[in-house]
Amino acid sequence: MDFDSIVLAIVAGLSVFGLVRVLDGPTVWDRMLGFALFSSKVIVAAVMIGIVINRTYMIDVALIYGVLGFIGTIMIARFIERRGDV
Question: Which residues of 22-58 are buried (b: 16+ CB within 10 A; e: fewer)?
Fold first, then answer.
């Protein structure tokens, strides 16, 4: 097992914490924070996979997912702001 695989396994393990927070969060704010955490870990994983398989298009995938994650977080925050704490 090389260094890249170890880092990828650690990032995958840490992304589980984000998913747990999304699924089990007591408030909607915890769920939003978990979504942002999971989104950032997916970006890091995409970059690491791109490094491991030596493909530069994975950087583009990570950038697109970063933009979508940001837009998703903003949309959730605006929904909460308009609708109140659900």
Answer: beeeeebeebbbbbbbbbbbbbbbbbbbbeeeeeeeb
